[in-house]
Amino acid sequence: MASIEIKDIKNNVVGSMDLSERFSMEGKGALMHEAVVSYLANQRQGTHATKTKGLVSGGGKKPWKQKHTGRARSGSSRSPLWRGGGTTFGPQPRDYSYELPKTARRTALFAAISKKIKDGEVLIVEGIKFEGPRTREMVNVLKNLGLSGGSTLVVVSEADRPVLLSARNIPGVDVICARDLNIYEVVSHKKVLATKAAIEVLEARPI
Question: How many domains does the chain have?
């Protein structure tokens, strides 16, 4: 069981927290990769489309008679061989999404968080609370914790509008609830700043 420091928003150590074994996973690189690929595939709209010979307007009349012209036979001016013709084997609308088993997704998520913790890229604070949207206060919090100037994912236990609005205009900073946390958000940010309550929500997740 690993232990991690808990700090306040002024970067003072105020305690420590014991983490369960799920935050000490190793050797899950292939699973993490597959989970990220699945997530990105599920974000694709798949609305790309090209026109085949049958979809291009015109071309109903045979350009010239079949024989005795000295030219190759042709049945339509919309042939893929002609300029302005259809596309051969072009992309068509399709669904790229596929699902990994729920256990695999959760294991991949905790493996990604475990790697972040091992690399010293996870900070846990006692709490983040603003009376209202204050971008300057959020900037000061990140500066005090040494997180300014980089990509940071702020994980909170529940939706907090003042925190969300305070971080919205800071480049590279995103806020997410612990229940909505996914592997892509973890690996796409350099640092993770989580509240103690958010970690407790993650601890309660089944695998």
Answer: 1
Q: What is the pLDDT of residues 27-81, one digit of tens each?
A: 899 999 999 999 999 999 999 999 999 999 998 999 999 999 999 999 999 999 9
Residue 17 forms part of a structural domain:
yes
Distance, in Å, from the CA atom of 149 to the CA atom of 165, rounded to the nearest integer, reads: 18
Q: Tokens 């997180």, residue?
A: 147
Q: What is the pLDDT of residues 119-158, one digit of tens each?
A: 999 999 999 988 889 899 999 999 999 998 889 999 999 9
Integer Cα distance of 51 and 87 in angstroms: 6
H helix runs in the chain, sequence order = 29-43, 102-118, 135-144, 161-167, 183-187, 196-203
Q: Please indicate, yes or no, if residue 131 is contained in any of the structural domains.
A: yes
Residue ranges making up the domain that contains 157: 2-26+100-203
Report yes or no on 140 lying in a domain: yes
Neighbours of 5 (CB within 10 A): 12
- pTM, to two decimals: 0.83
Give the domain CATH number at 164: 3.40.1370.10
3-state secondary structure 156-207: ECCCCHHHHHHHCCCCCEEEEEHHHCCHHHHHCCCEEEEEHHHHHHHHCCCC
